[in-house]
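Our preliminary data section would be incomplete without showing what the modeling component actually yields. Below, a chain of 424 amino acids is followed by its predicted structure, encoded as tokens that our downstream tools consume directly.
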Amino acid sequence: MAQLTDDCFAFSGPLLPVEEVERIIRERITPVAEIETVPLHGASGRVIAREVVAPIDLPPFDNSAVDGYAVRHADLDAHAETRLAVVERVTAGRTAARALAAGTAVRIFTGAPMPSGADTVFMQEDVRLDGEAVIVPAGLKVGANRRLAGEDVRAGAIVLPAGRRLGAQHVALAAAIGLTALDVFRRVRVAVFSTGDEIVEPGAPRPSAALYDANRYLLAGLIERLGATSTDLGILPDDPDRLARAIAAAAAEHDLVVTSGGVSTGEADHVRRAVEAVGRLVFWRVAIKPGRPVAMGVVPASGRGPSAAFVGLPGNPAAVYVTFARVVRPLLLRLAGAEAAPLLALPVRVAFGYRKKAGRREYVRVKLERTADGTVEAVKHAQEGAGIITSLTETDGLVELSEDTTTVTPGSTVGFLSYAALAA
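Predicted structure:
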């Protein structure tokens, strides 16, 4: 189980600012402790548990960056062409038989080791041949087109710090320094279920007043893209006792329990009471739109290990997406042991006007479009409702409006978060 102390949350106000949510997660949540060794082919998406130190220089030897001719720069005429005898041919994977003598050159190919004594490479298209000799122009700087040993990585350097979430490029670096496996934290285990008498499983008979459940599929996809595993616990009715038993059982086997629906203030919203029956609900409203009713708490694991975290999200899919990005995502990455990487909203010009209340963070679903003058603009989706799933499928990301912002005018610059960044 994840290490999660029962007293890790201190906020008791009615509306929790987004920055306070992030602070709580950053300071009080402890990552999972278990470490496992995985082969490189299974390392992408995992989190490094111990820093990786390069055992060799990268590249391990001086080599040519181009196809051409390796020479001694001291042999070159500074003001006129130089004629050099070509004495050897060195391909990638081969080594020159002898050191380069004065007045000679070696035909060399990209990646081939530099002959001893050679320090500069002419590109083949910049020279001309004359029988067994090559004629090179004046003006090339010493060291041109030569890759130095260790210019990428020095032996003994930390190449992958602990907490780095691995992408394909990081795995490639590990392979380049000769590693075959990496020590990573185990995957975070997340339980997911939906709540509500009005929700039914896709493919099942749908009563006229019911909706097919989309949230579990949305959450499972987002969770797994972040490198965790998800357990689908289905749909639970609006029954506080059944909800309490389900949450307690899920907490015994998982690090995090995520639900959707039933966290507002309606008479049929029972998640809050269910969590309080088996654990402790720390807060249940965040100053964010869409998605203000977000519950977060701690559920003891019945003596089987550390407590599990609980997050109850709203029922509308767009609100689920936004609150996952701003609450569940940082919590999940923290549990996984990933280093803190705050979301960086990129500046973009807006093509719409917008008004909002001060004191809450708002997220507007937008599509990026290129104007006639080549400028990229953010265009707001026509329908703003938190239940409009197509507002997610027909847009590219979210415009983030701070708590202090109250008015956005066309042509102004705002921060943009792409869906790709929010799911990484």
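Residues 1-13 have pLDDT under 50 and may be disordered. The chain has eight helices and 30 strands. Preliminary results of this kind motivate Aim 1 of the renewal.
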